[in-house]
Write a structure and sequence with these properties.
heterodimer; A: Rieske Iron-sulfur Protein; 13 strands; 14% strand; B: mainly alpha; Cytochrome Bc1 Complex, Chain C; two-stranded antiparallel sheet; 19 helices; disordered C terminus
C-alpha cells in the first residue's frame, strides 16, 4: 500500500526519471487496452470510408449521418482511451504563481497613468475638452444616420389598416365574398380587396369573417348595424402578441389563438374570456351592398394587434 | 562542409541536433518568435481531471460543429423574402408560392447531398451548445468557481449564454417556415411592448411595420457574421483567462490553493480533448441521422394569416413562452398611453431580472459573505447551503416556466381542462422556488453533518467466520481513486456558525 501511495502522490512533470511510475500507463494490462483501441480505430476507419462511399453513391441521408457519426465516435473513443489508459498516468502537479505583481510594480504602473498621463492632460485642459467634445459630438451625430437609416418612423402606421369605407372583403385568392357564400357557423379569412397579396395585407389587414346567424347580428351596444345578415368580422391579430387567431370553436362560438390560448367570445364583441390577451379583438363594421357583396363600412377605428406605448 | 560527411545517415542526424528535423524546425521557429520557453510551459500546463470540467468542452466543441455545418449551409441558403414558385424534389409543396429563403432551405435539405444531415446537425448542435452552456454554468455556480479571481470570466460566460440564445433564435427564424415566422411575429410584438421606445425600436429592427422588408437579410447577417464574431471573440477571451488564471480544482490529496494537480496538456489532455471533440461531432452526426429536427417542409412556408396548433419554440426559448402563457392579462392604460404589462413583464422584465442576477451574483455573494480571498479550490455544493439553495430555486423556477410553455399539449395529452392546467402551472411556478430553497437547504445541512459525507463510499466486505459469525470490514480504497480523499474544505464561520453544527436540529452522526 505505501508504495502505491507514493506513486499516487502528485509530482512535478519536469525532471522525472524515464522509469518513474508516474510516467507509466494507467492501464493494468496495456497490451489488451492497445488491442481494444486498435479495434476502435479500425471500426472508425471502416465507417469513415463507408461515409465516403455513401456520399459517392448519394445514399439516403441517414446512412451519411450514421457512417460519419459512428466513424467520428469510434475514432474519438479510441483517442480518449489512448490518452486515459496508455499515456503517463500522473498525477502531476504544477505550482500556481500569484497573478498579482509586487507593490512597487503596481505603484509604477499606477504612477505612469495617474502622474504622467494625468499631468499632461490636466495642464492642457482646454485641448482635452475640445478633443473629447469633438469626438463625442461625432459619436452622437454618427449614431443618428446609422440608426435612423434602419427603418421608417412608426408615425400613424400602427393606428390604421388598409380597410377603407366600401372596401370589398375578398378571400386569399382575391374572390369577393357574397352574402350567400357562408353557411351559418363557418368562417373565412378576408382582406380588403387589392391587399390580399401584400405583406401588409397579410400581416395587418387580416380579418376573420364569421357567419354567426341568419339575421342581422349585434355583438355590442352601438354596433347594431355592423353585422348584416349574421356576418360579423374581427381583426385576426391576437391582442396579446399578434398571432393569427386561427381557430374557431363553432359550438361555443369562441375564437382561439393557438399561440398562448387566448379565447375571444365571438357573440359579444370578441371580449377575451380566457388567456393572456388583454383586449377584445377590434370589430370591423360591415354592410352588404346592392349586389349582395360583403363590404366594410370604415376602418377598425382603433389599432389592431398587440399593445404598444402610443396606443391610448 | 564536404559532401562525404553529410552523406551518411548518422552524420545527418548529428548535424540536425539531438531532436532531429522537428528540433531543427522548432529552433528556426524560436529564432524568429522566441516560443521555446513559453511553448514548453504551455505543453506542461496541468489540467485537473474531473468529469464536470468536460461540460464546458461540450459547449466549445458543439460550437466548432456549429461553425463547420453553418459554413456548409451558407453556401446554399438564400437570405431573401422575394417570392418564387417552388418546383423542387419535395412534391407536396410543388407549385406553391414561397420565399427564396424557404425554398432554398427546403432545397438544401433535399437536393443537396448531405444537406439534410448538415441542417439537422446544425440544429442539434445549437440545442446541445446552449444546453451545455447552461449545465456548465450551473457547475461553475454550485462549486463556487466564479469567485475571486474569476468574476470576469463568469461575466464573459453569462454574456456568451445570452449571445448563444439570441443567435439560436435568429438562426431558427431564417428558414421562414410557418413555425419560425410565428416566432418572429411574437419577437416583434415583444419589442413593441417596451415602453416609450418600443414602436420605434420595432420599426428600426424590422425596417417598418411587421413583417417589414428586411427581417430575413438582417437576421441572416446577424446570425452568420456579427453574433458569431462576438461569440468567437468572447470564447477566445474566456479561454485566455482560463489559461492565465489556471483551472480550479476540487480539494483532495496533494491539492492546495497554490497548485494544480492533474494531467499535462501534451500529450495526455490533448489526446483526451481531441478525442472528445470527435465524440461530440460524432454524437451530433448520429442525432442528425436518426432524430428528425425541425421538418420545415411539413410546417410549410410562413404566411402571416396562417397558424398551426402546438407551436413551440426551441427549448431555450421555452421559459419565455411559458411566462407569456401564464402571466395574467394585466394591461396598463393611463394618460393616453399603454404599457402592455401582459407582455412587458414576462418577456422583457423577467429575463432582464434573471440575466442580471447572473451578472451581479459574484459581487452580491462577496458583499454578503465578506469573502474577498482568492479561491482556487472548489466548494462541495452541500457546504454552501444558501448558495446551492438559491441556485436550485432559480433552476426550479426556470424548469416550471419551461413546462408551462406546453399547457395546451399537457391539457390535450392528459385530457384535463386547460384552465386547470393553467392555474396548476401558475401555482407551481410561484411555489417552486419557495419549496426548492428550504428543501435544498435542509438536504445540504444534513449532508454536511454526515460523517465521511465528503468521501467516496467504499464497499463493505462481509465474511463468515468458521463459527458462523458475520463480520463486515471496509474494502481498501481503490488506489487510482483520487477523489476518495476528497475532504471538504473548512466552512468559514461567516457562512455557518460552528456551534450550530454541534447542536443544530437534525444533527446526527453515522458511524462508518
Amino acid at each position: 500500500m505505501s508504495e502505491h501511495d507514493e506513486s499516487r502522490t502528485p509530482v512535478a512533470l519536469s525532471g522525472l526519471a524515464a522509469n518513474d511510475p508516474h510516467l507509466q500507463p494507467a492501464a493494468r494490462n496495456p497490451q489488451l487496452v492497445e488491442r481494444v483501441i486498435a479495434m476502435c480505430f479500425l471500426v472508425g476507419i471502416i465507417l469513415v470510408i463507408g461515409f465516403g462511399a455513401c456520399y459517392w453513391v448519394n445514399a439516403k441521408p441517414w446512412t451519411l449521418g450514421a457512417t460519419m457519426g459512428g466513424g467520428l465516435f469510434f475514432l474519438g473513443v479510441g483517442l480518449v482511451a489512448w490518452g486515459k489508459y496508455l499515456m503517463p498516468r500522473g498525477p502531476f502537479v504544477e505550482e500556481r504563481h500569484t497573478l498579482a505583481n509586487s507593490e512597487s510594480d503596481r505603484n509604477a504602473f499606477a504612477a505612469a497613468i495617474v502622474e504622467r498621463g494625468g499631468t499632461v492632460i490636466k495642464r492642457r485642459k482646454m485641448l482635452g475638452g475640445l478633443l473629447g467634445g469633438g469626438l463625442g459630438i461625432f459619436g452622437v451625430v454618427a449614431i443618428f444616420p446609422l440608426i435612423r437609416s434602419l427603418g421608417p418612423l412608426p408615425k400613424s402606421t400602427l393606428f390604421h389598416t388598409d380597410w377603407r369605407p366600401g372596401s370589398f372583403a375578398v378571400d386569399i385568392t382575391g374572390r369577393r365574398v357574397h352574402k350567400g357564400d357562408l353557411a351559418v357557423g363557418s368562417i373565412v379569412t378576408v382582406y380588403p380587396e387589392g391587399f390580399q397579396d401584400t405583406d401588409n395585407g397579410q400581416a395587418v389587414d387580416q380579418t376573420v369573417l364569421i357567419r354567426i346567424s341568419n339575421q342581422d347580428f349585434t355583438t355590442q351596444k352601438g354596433r347594431e348595424s355592423w353585422g348584416p345578415a349574421g356576418y360579423i368580422a374581427y381583426s385576426k391579430l391576437c391582442t396579446h402578441l399578434g398571432c393569427p387567431v386561427g381557430l374557431y370553436e363553432q359550438q361555443l362560438q369562441l375564437l382561439v389563438c393557438p399561440c398562448h390560448q387566448s379565447m375571444f367570445n365571438a357573440t359579444n364583441g370578441a371580449v377575451p374570456n380566457f388567456g393572456p390577451a388583454p383586449r377584445p379583438l377590434p370589430q370591423l363594421p360591415l354592410y352588404i351592398d346592392a349586389d349582395g357583396y360583403i363590404r366594410a363600412q370604415k376602418d377598425y377605428g382603433q389599432p389592431v394587434g398587440p399593445g404598444f406605448w402610443e396606443r391610448s | 562542409m564536404s559532401s562525404e560527411v553529410i552523406n551518411t545517415k548518422r552524420a545527418k542526424q548529428a548535424a540536425a541536433g539531438p531532436y532531429g528535423k522537428v528540433g531543427h524546425a522548432l529552433n528556426e521557429l524560436d529564432d524568429r518568435l522566441g516560443v521555446a520557453k513559453g511553448g514548453r510551459t504551455f505543453l506542461d500546463k496541468i489540467f485537473p481531471d474531473h468529469w464536470s470540467f468536460m461540460l464546458g468542452e461540450i459547449a466549445l466543441y458543439s460550437f466548432v460543429v456549429l461553425l463547420a455545418t453553418g459554413v456548409f449551409l451558407t453556401l446554399y441558403y438564400i437570405p431573401s423574402t422575394a417570392l418564387t414558385t417552388y418546383h423542387g424534389s419535395y412534391l407536396p409543396l410543388d407549385g406553391q408560392r414561397v420565399t427564396e429563403a424557404y425554398a432554398s432551405s427546403v432545397n438544401l435539405s433535399f437536393a443537396v447531398r448531405a444537406g439534410l444531415l448538415m441542417r439537422q446537425m446544425h440544429h442539434w448542435a445549437c440545442d446541445i451548445f446552449i444546453g451545455a452552456i447552461v449545465v456548465h454554468m450551473a457547475r461553475v455556480f454550485f462549486t463556487g468557481a466564479f469567485r475571486k479571481p474569476r468574476e470576469l470570466n463568469w461575466t464573459i460566460g453569462t454574456t456568451l449564454m445570452i449571445l448563444a440564445i439570441v443567435n439560436g433564435f435568429l438562426g431558427y427564424s431564417l428558414p421562414d417556415d410557418l413555425v419560425s415566422g410565428t416566432g418572429i411575429r411574437i419577437a416583434y410584438s415583444i419589442i413593441l411592448s417596451i415602453p416609450v421606445v418600443g414602436s420605434y425600436l420595432g420599426f428600426l429592427v424590422f425596417g417598418g411595420n411587421f413583417p417589414g422588408t428586411m427581417v430575413i437579410p438582417r437576421f441572416f447577417i446577424l446570425h452568420v457574421l456579427i453574433v458569431p464574431a462576438l461569440i468567437l471573440g468572447l470564447v477566445g477571451a474566456h479561454l485566455f483567462l482560463l489559461v492565465r488564471q489556471k483551472h480550479t480544482q476540487f480539494p483532495g490529496k496533494g491539492r492546495t490553493e497554490n497548485n494544480v494537480v492533474g494531467t499535462p496538456m501534451f500529450p495526455v489532455f490533448m489526446a483526451k480533448t481531441t478525442g472528445f471533440l470527435l465524440i461530440v461531432a460524432g454524437v451530433t452526426a448520429l442525432l442528425g441521422a436518426f432524430a428528425q429536427i425541425n421538418p420545415i417542409w411539413q410546417f410549410g412556408p410562413y404566411e402571416a394569416s396562417r397558424i398551426s396548433y402546438a407551436v413551440q419554440p426551441d427549448w431555450y426559448m421555452g421559459f419565455l413562452d411559458g411566462a407569456l402563457r401564464i402571466w395574467p392579462s394585466w394591461s396598463f392604460h393611463s394618460f393616453g398611453y399603454t404599457i402592455p404589462l401582459e407582455v412587458t413583464v414576462p418577456a422583457v422584465i423577467l429575463p432582464g431580472i434573471l440575466f442580471n442576477i447572473a451578472y451581479v451574483w459574484p459581487a452580491f455573494e462577496r458583499k454578503l459573505t465578506k469573502d474577498f480571498a482568492m479561491h482556487n479550490l472548489l466548494d462541495r455544493p452541500s457546504n454552501r447551503p444558501k448558495r446551492t439553495a438559491a441556485g436550485v430555486a432559480v433552476l426550479a423556477l426556470l424548469s416550471m416556466l419551461f413546462i408551462a410553455s406546453s399547457t395546451d399539449v399537457i391539457a390535450n395529452f392528459f385530457h384535463l381542462p386547460l384552465n386547470q392546467v393553467l392555474w396548476g402551472m401558475r401555482i407551481l411556478v410561484i411555489l417552486s422556488p419557495f419549496v426548492a430553497y428550504p428543501v435544498t437547504w435542509k438536504i445540504c445541512q444534513e449532508l454536511r453533518v454526515v460523517e465521511g459525507g465528503g468521501k467516496r463510499k467504499t464497499t463493505n466486505v462481509v465474511t463468515r467466520t468458521a463459527e458462523g459469525e458475520y463480520v463486515a470490514t471496509a474494502a481498501p480504497v481503490y488506489v487510482d481513486d483520487v477523489h476518495s480523499e476528497l475532504e471538504a474544505s473548512e466552512v468559514p464561520t461567516f457562512i455557518v456558525d460552528e456551534t450550530d453544527k454541534e447542536t443544530g436540529p437534525g444533527t446526527r452522526t453515522v458511524d462508518r
